[in-house]
């Protein structure tokens, strides 16, 4: 029966860690990220859920004869902002999985 106390302790620790993980994830989801391309001509804003919440395009970059450039700038800024979200997510959530055996989460 002695092992039962250790198991209860371990379960409590796991529940505490899970609560902290959920809180960290909620905070991450509420964060705002932004990236620009073309020297600030295009700005893309996203939240921590990887949802694009805004796209700002400077008037001078809108050229009907060069739509491809504008598309490239939007893609570049979007990829960059999503990369920022991934990096923050990995650093935030990674603190909970350090040292755990693979596949535990």
Written description of the protein model:
This protein has 105 residues and is α+β, with helices and mostly antiparallel strands. The chain contains two helices and three strands. It has helices at residues 2-30, 67-97; strands spanning 32-37, 42-47, 52-57. A three-stranded antiparallel β-sheet has the order 1-2-3. Helix 1 runs antiparallel to helix 2 (67-97). The two termini are 28 Å apart.
The portion of residues forming beta strands comes to: 15-25%
Helix count equals: 2
What Rg do the Cα atoms give? Answer: 21 Å
Strand element count: 3
* Percent in helix: 55-70%
String of helices and strands = HEEEH
Give the class from helix and strand content and strand pairing.
Answer: alpha+beta
Average pLDDT confidence is: 90
Annotated CATH topology of the domain at 29-94: Ybab, Chain: A
Poorly predicted ranges: none
Shape: rod-shaped
Largest sheet: spatial strand order: 1-2-3
CATH class of the domain at 29-94: Alpha Beta
What is the H level of CATH, i.e. the homologous superfamily of the domain at 29-94?
A: Nucleoid-associated protein YbaB-like domain
What is the second-level CATH architecture of the domain at 29-94?
2-Layer Sandwich
**What summary fits the major beta sheet?**
3 strands, antiparallel
Give the terminus-to-terminus CA distance. Answer: 28 Å
């Amino acid at each position: 029966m002695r092992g039962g106390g250790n198991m209860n302790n371990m379960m409590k620790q796991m529940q505490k860690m899970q609560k902290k993980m959920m809180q960290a994830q909620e905070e991450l989801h509420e964060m705002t990220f932004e990236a620009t391309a073309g020297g600030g001509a295009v700005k893309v804003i996203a939240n921590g859920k990887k949802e694009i919440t805004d796209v700002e395009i400077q008037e001078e970059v809108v050229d009907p004869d060069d739509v491809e450039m504008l598309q490239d700038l939007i893609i570049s800024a979007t990829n960059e902002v999503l990369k920022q979200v991934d990096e923050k997510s990995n650093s935030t959530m990674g603190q909970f999985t350090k040292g755990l055996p693979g596949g535990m989460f």
